[in-house]
Amino acid sequence: MAGLWRCMLVVVVLMCVCLWDSTEAVGGAKSRPRPQRRRPKKPKVDPIDLAQPAQNIDLQQAVDCSCTTMTGTWYLLNTASKCSYLVNHGTKVEPTVMTLTRPADSDQTLSVSTKTRHNHQCWEILQVYHLTPTLGRLTLKGTRPELNIDIVIAETDYSSYAIMYYQKHGKITLKLYGRSVDNLSEPTLTKFEQLAEKQGLGLAYLFPFPNYNHCGAVDQDHIINCVPTC
To answer: Which molecular-function annotations from GO does this UniProt entry contain (predicted)?
Structure first.
């Protein structure tokens, strides 16, 4: 049972990069279709390929607290998604904080620690984002290549906000992070809403996260190590 809760926490509560089943109406009489000339198929374009990474993104290890890189602490402030968990339980989301660091033994990865609360218990999930040849584009590897999650750091000023895209199986989730919980400007929120709208994620699919009572230290029994995968 503990293993089941851990799996649910990783897949549903944190990433929320979900899949949806499409349905089509069936039934009724159908006439024989007329032969038609096949139109050439358009090249398939993943939605995340339309999201351009921020220019000259800096992923290097921060030496001080000047907040001039992507490393450090980021508070999750808002999420745009059609994830069924958020659609059904979006009013019950818990405060979530992410910390990014560059490991000393690798220049091709980014260590990720995410802390959140589930059933009144603080949990920490450890993951690794892999750098790609495209600056500002990362990969969270799954147990199989088709389960990989593509990530794009689309907008950031390093010191106050970051907007990140997550894609799995062609489905997009946007997340808005802040360096603190109380300095988000109205223009930044508007920008996030506009980017979400371009992905078909209107106001009904925006889910603000609490900006208080974030988890601190987490005991070893409630750390989920998803390195290399989970």
So the answer is: complement binding
Q: Which run of H or of E encompasses 161? A: strand 161-168
Residue 42, both tokens: 């358009």
Closest CA to 74 of 164, 140, 155, 161: 161
User: What pLDDT sits at residue 54?
Assistant: 73
Q: What is the pTM of this model?
A: 0.80
Q: What is the DSSP letter of 2?
A: H
Encode pLDDT of 111-167 as tens digits: 999 999 999 999 999 999 999 999 899 999 999 999 999 999 999 999 999 999 999
Cα-Cα-Cα-Cα dihedral sign, residues 113, 150, 53, 135: positive
Token pair in block for residue 19: 């899949």
Measure CA 37 to chain center: 41
The dihedral built from the CA positions of residue 9, 215, 64 and 53, taken in this order, carries a sign that is positive
